[in-house]
Every structure is written in structure tokens, then in C-alpha cells.
Amino acid sequence: SAVISQKPSRDICQRGTSLTIQCQVDSQVTMMFWYRQQPGQSLTLIATANQGSEATYESGFVIDKFPISRPNLTFSTLTVSNMSPEDSSIYLCSVAQLEAFFGQGTRLTVV
Amino acid sequence: TQLLEQSPQFLSIQEGENLTVYCNSSSVFSSLQWYRQEPGEGPVLLVTVVTGGEVKKLKRLTFQFGDARKDSSLHITAAQPGDTGLYLCAGQTSNTGKLIFGQGTTLQVKP
User: Fold this and answer.
1) Rounded CA Rg of chain A
2) Number of folded domains that form chain B
3) CATH of the domain at B51
4) CB spacing of B98 vs A45 below 8 angstroms
5) Among A26, A75, B42, B47, whose CB has the most other CB atoms within 10 angstroms?
């Protein structure tokens, strides 16, 4: 198993600003994943964060909007850039091999 | 595009009743996981099934993986109010750790 610390746990942001979410894992992992989840709904994969290379983005998500950093094997950040109310959601980081483990999520509200 | 169809999306039952949640796909998965998520928390892994036809039991929860590894079910016997939450199935098609999530089932068990 893995223990994942994610922060902030929640934030309220003004439209047009950017928020960086941090994810710290208690062990070294090759890949980390960033998901978005509307309250009460399922998870949608944003991108896979690889250490030492650029993140791999899923269809509908682009680097300019969701830049990701992966400076080492235990840490990653996701930035939500130029936010609009449509970006209000829960953002989750995850590590996985056979099974996935998740941080507690960041609840973002854009006003 | 790989899809995992989960049903039902909402379920409200009385304490003591039984229920089954289904996940179906046209894709073959190397493994399938079931998660439970409570508000303000990340998904927590309940079980992983790997072998076609596999059945796993976790107290009052029974998980099945289809013979062709394209579908799975979660059966809860004598549901309790503590079972209330969002249940998610997620399939993995490779060892990359990338998961495809079903739409989720919101379960409410009334005392």
C-alpha cells in the first residue's frame, strides 16, 4: 500500500487565477496519476505523471491548462491554470501498480 | 475508446435488503478493482479480481469477475447504513497502473 498526502484539501479561487495542488507519496513510485471528479460522480483521468519525462495527457486535457511537474519519485504537482467556474471539481492524485491508492482529494471551487 | 458501464447509478434501499451492482465492458481487463468512497475522501480499495470466474468475499460483500474478464459484479447481503457511499469499479488493461472507471453507484441504505 501507499500513503498519499495531498494539499490543499480545499480552496476557493477567483476565476482567471491558477492553483497548484501538491501530492506527496511515502514511497518511490514510477508513475503518478491525476484525476478529476465531479461530486458524486466517477473519476476521469487527466494525465499520467512520469518522473524524468513530460506528463501524458488524456483526450480533452492539455498541458497549457493542467501543467504537471514530477521532480522526483515521491512528489508531483498539478496546476489548474486560468480557472473558470467549469473547473470547480475534486482533483485526486493516485499511485498504482496492480491496485490504485488515492490521496484524499482537493475540492476546488472557482467563483 | 474503452468504456466500463456501471449500473445502477443510484440505489436507495432499506437496511437488511440485498443489492447487486454491475460493471460491464466490451474490453478485456487484466484486473478489475472495486472502490468505496465517502464524501471528502479519496476512493478506498475494497478488492482486486484478476482471474476470469474469480469470486471474492469480504464479509457481506461478494465480488465476481466474469469468465471473459469483461464484466464484474458486487453483491451486498443484508445492507447496513454504514454501507452508504459511492461504489466505483475500475478496470486495468495493462500493467501501467492506468485505470478506467465506471460511472459509479451511489448507494443509500436507510435505517
Assistant:
1) 13
2) 1
3) 2.60.40.10
4) yes
5) B42
Q: Is the pLDDT of residue B95 over 90?
A: no
At the fourth CATH level, which superfamily is domain A4-9+17-104?
A: Immunoglobulins (2.60.40.10)
Distance CA B84, CA A63 (A): 37
- Yes or no, beta carbons of A97 and B103 under 8 Å apart: no
Asked whether the beta carbons of A59 and A46 are under 8 A apart, the reply is no
Per-residue pLDDT, averaged over B45-59, amounts to 95
pLDDT of residue B1: 59
How far, CA to CA in Å, does A100 sit from each of A18, A84, A96, B56?
28, 29, 4, 18
Domain that holds residue B59: 5-110
Are B88 and A107 a contacting pair at CB < 8 A?
no
pLDDT digit string (tens) for B61-84?
999 999 999 999 999 999 999 999
Domain ranges of chain A: 4-9+17-104
